[in-house]
Amino acid sequence: MKSFSIKIFNQIAFSTLITLSAAAPAGFAGATDNVPDMTPHRVIYSLTSDKVRSDSPFVAAEGDFIMEIAESCEGWTLSQRIRLVFSDKMDGRVQTDYRFASFESRDGLSYDFSVKNTHEDEVVEDFSGTAKLAALGKGGTARFRRPVVKDMALPAGTLFPIQYNLALVRSMAAGNKIMPGITFDGGSAEAPYEVNAIIGLPSENNTGQGKGDANLLKGKAWPVRIAYFNLSEKKAEPSFELDMHMLQNGISPSLVLDYGYMRVGGTLEKIEALPRPTCGTQR
Question: Which one-letter DSSP state was computed for residue 238?
Answer without folding.
Answer: -
